Amino acid sequence: MDIIQLKHFLSITETLHFGKSSIRCNLSPSAFTRSIKRLEADLGYNLLERNNRSVMLTPAGELFKEYAVDILDKLKEFKNTAVINETNLKGEISLYCTVTACYSILPPIIEDFRLKYPDIHINLITGNESSTMQKVMDEEVDISIISMPEKLPGNIIFHPITITPLVFVAPSFNTAFLQGNSQKIDLENTPFILPEKGVARKRADRWFHNKNISPEVYAQVSGNEAILAMVSLGCGIGLVPELVIDKSPFKDKIRIVDIKPAFESYLVGICMNKSKNNNPIIKVFSEIVQNRKELKDY
Is 241 within 8 Å of 165 (Cβ atoms)? Predict the structure, then answer.
């Protein structure tokens, strides 16, 4: 049994799918299966129940999952703390964010961090915005980039990075959504493409409620990039943070629509679990963020 096998096992506990886990671990399905079987043989227990339709953890698998998580956490803690001084930090930090944040927010932060701490490996994971907070709360990652919710959980620390307006966007070529010759939007009869979950969706629901409008929702989408793509194709009007537009490949095919009242600006930053606040690597990453005074406010 080795560390690689533990990582393979934890991957299958998350996906419950051999094909998906083999891709995640950069192995062929047969090689991944052999790794799991060797682990089970070393332990003398079946960790998984599998058939042609599903994969489930056995009671022994559930117990061993806790052991594997504990071992990998302790190994990571050792790597992060077994250093002579802070300027020679070595180890790993895991970051979770959306694809939008990856190209619009992270680059200057990562650049500063890598220049100062070249021996720290950054494990960057991208996914849906709705998962950002939960990933940190469940301690699956060290840091997430989030839009600040109206209320932070008590065990979460937040440090702001930038501010951006939340805006409606329409296709630049399509005037079908306009009322007559004016630039006003027919809110009652316009199809909207809205975020599926998260801060933006909550604000949108409240905005429509306050205007006593039941919007025609064309689609509920889990990513800003998908919203912009659908708007650029003329599917409707979307709601996105303005900062996603600047580097979007669709920016020439969409336009911001001035609809009143305007939304409250979006505060974007990093969050971490208080239990990891004394981790030296997480601490220096947080300091990099807090010291970037020149970050643009949108």
Answer: yes
